[in-house]
Amino acid sequence: MEKAKIARIWRGRTLPHIADEYEAYNFEEGIRPLIEKALWVQTLREDREQETEFITISYWESIEAMSRFTGSDPNSIHHLPRDKDYLIEIPDAVQILEIRTSNGRSQ
């Protein structure tokens, strides 16, 4: 198995009353296809009083591997067809980080 060297982080916010619906939609339309391409995928959620934030972190063996999924620009975002219906604002960028240290136990 390849070792993850790159983390790609996407953030999006929605209103609390539609957060569960968006989470289910995002998983089926966005996360499920990502799971097939990335080495590892995490989805995180923080419920706040006025908004709910979702964070998706995908792990990749290289920028080149990530670019094969995203297209020529690894910073480009694949917007889902209904993102504009759910998200408070449409994200215009992702964060790409080089993994320097990774340690832990898998379950």
TrEMBL record:
<protein>
    <recommendedName>
        <fullName>Antibiotic biosynthesis monooxygenase</fullName>
    </recommendedName>
</protein>
<dbReference type="InterPro" id="IPR011008">
    <property type="entry name" value="Dimeric_a/b-barrel"/>
</dbReference>
